[in-house]
Amino acid sequence: MSLTQWDFAHVTSASWTAVRICGAGKEFRESLAFSRECIRKTEDAMFQVSEYVRKTSSEDGGVVLDVKHGRMFGLNIVGSKILQLLEQQHTPTEIAQEIASTFGVSADIADRDVREFLETLEKHHLIEARLTSATL
Question: 41 vs 69, which has greater pLDDT?
């Protein structure tokens, strides 16, 4: 999956699993580490797409617009599928299982990559974590 950010100042492209932010410093890395820890602690956390997100998708991927922050992101087909599954109220574990099955990757790789991608979406305020009653 990839998430490519188009901002007014620059264009940043991403690898399959994460966004590379031009000039990302210590604060970003610390925030990402904290986010990873939170997701690991709440493995079955549910996520919701932010109310400020507008998106469209096709067989080639999708485009996500954050109207609050004025940013647009491009998603490849895997990233678009993950966002679709989030909207259908799937947990990260369920999403990873679906990605592994659909795209023929190992469960471990799918799990790791899905969680990294969710962290990236959360860092960019495109999704918000919320706990289910099962995790409280």
Answer: 69
Residue in the block written with tokens 């993950």: 82
CATH says 3-135 is which class? alpha beta
Cβ-count burial of 96 within 10 angstroms (0-12 exposed, 13-18 middle, 19+ buried)?
A: buried
Query: Within 13 A of 2's CA, how many CA atoms are on the CB side?
Result: 14
Q: Identify whether the C-beta of residue 1 lies closer than 8 Å to the C-beta of residue 82.
A: yes
Q: Are strands 71-75 and 3-6 parallel, antiparallel or unpaired?
A: antiparallel
Q: List the chain domain ranges.
A: 3-135
pLDDT at residue 130 in the model: 75
Tally of CA atoms within 13 A in the half-sphere of 56 that contains its CB: 1
In sequence order, which ranges of the chain are alpha helices (DSSP H)? 26-41, 77-87, 92-103, 107-123
Tokens of 84: 């679709």
Give the number of other Cβ atoms within 10 Å of residue 67's Cβ.
12
pTM (two decimals) = 0.66
What is the Cα–Cα distance from 10 to 7, expressed in whole angstroms?
Answer: 5
